[in-house]
Protein 1
Amino acid sequence: MRNLGGSSAAGTPAGRGGVPRNICGAVPLYDFRCQRCEERFEALAGVSAGAACPSCGSEEVERVYSAFAGPFTVGLRGQAAKRSNATRAVREEQRRERKEARRQQREGS
Ligand SMILES: [Zn+2]
């Protein structure tokens, strides 16, 4: 179970990405992904003929049914999400190295 300070259920996850997501509001937002540049963006549902990518302007976008949408993923999309995945991998690697170093120290002494 992950609980970010216990405040995540109280209100809107403001301050993450700067765009408050309207979870229970009257305006449903849907996630889209650009098929050309893989930019992730949000658009209002029911917009005529879909949406266009704000990054490259392509209309080859697909609706993303956000299975993992939630307070934890708000603000991480597109390049930012990719970058965070990369940093997480690096961090994982560093932790493994540190653990390995500690183990060798213990064995050495
Ligand atoms: Zn695009």
Protein 2
Amino acid sequence: MKIRIIALFLILLYLISSAELPKFKDAGLINAAGTPIKYWCPAPWVGDWNGDGKKDLIIGVFIKNSPNVFLYLNIGTNSAPEFAAKQNLKAGGQDIYLHSG
Ligand SMILES: [Ca+2]
């Protein structure tokens, strides 16, 4: 029984070590109006917010007692997006605040 377990372990080890692992490149930071978009623990969403056919960026972040859902409209194209300066995302004319806890 021990020999079978060891053989199985060795086979798995061989398969794992010989598998092609995905490779990623550093895509860099995304800019909006020439400034890198940086947040701690962001929750991004990509979709066409304003219906112009270009995918926009919405990011929810953890900022206490402050608007914390931001809209970046795509002023470029879907294949080469460029994002305008941050806007607070609003609902009913009011800034959105998402509370934690
Ligand atoms: Ca859009």
